[in-house]
Amino acid sequence: MSNSDRFTIVCPCCEATLNVDAETGALLSHEEKTKPLGSFEDMVKDLDKQKQTREQIFAQEMSSHKDRGRLLEEKFQEAKKRAEKDTRVYRNPLDLD
Fold first, then answer.
1. FRET pair for 89, CA 20 to 30 Å: which of 35, 62, 72, 95?
2. What is the secondary structure of 4-35 as a DSSP string?
3. How far is 78 from 71, CA to CA, in rounded Å?
4. 53 and 26, same structural domain?
5. Residue by residue, what is the 3-state secondary structure of 62-73?
6. What is the rounded distance in angstroms from the CA atom of residue 79 to the CA atom of residue 51?
7. In this structure, what DSSP letter does residue 92 have?
8. How confident is the model at residue 19 (pLDDT cuts 50, 70, 90)?
């Protein structure tokens, strides 16, 4: 097989090299781009940043959960007051038959 029988394509997203058969369009081979390994200190810094981000998100969710309980209680009390003021009698639509 000569080189004119296949296309070499570089993926713009992941920069992998794809070899495709020109006649059938079948994928012949795939080679991923080699990623350079970072230093150990860089990896530790990335883990620390991820840990801080997780802790911030957790604290944010905890505070919103605390507020959620208070807001639900206020809504319940308000609905309870409206229910006490309402004098209409509820009639089940199925009883009207």
1. 72
2. GGEEEEE-TTT--EEEEETTT--EEEEEPPPP
3. 11
4. no
5. HHHHHHHHHHHH
6. 42
7. -
8. very high
Alpha-carbon span 7 to 63, nearest angstrom: 56
pLDDT in tens, 40-89: 888 899 999 999 999 999 999 888 887 888 889 999 999 999 988 888 88
Domain count, the chain: 2
Cα–Cα distance measured from residue 88 to residue 40, given in angstroms and rounded to the nearest whole number = 71
Residues 24-38 have pLDDT tens digits of: 888 899 899 887 787
Do 62 and 76 lie in one domain? The reply is yes
Helix (H, G, I), strand (E, B) or coil at 61: helix
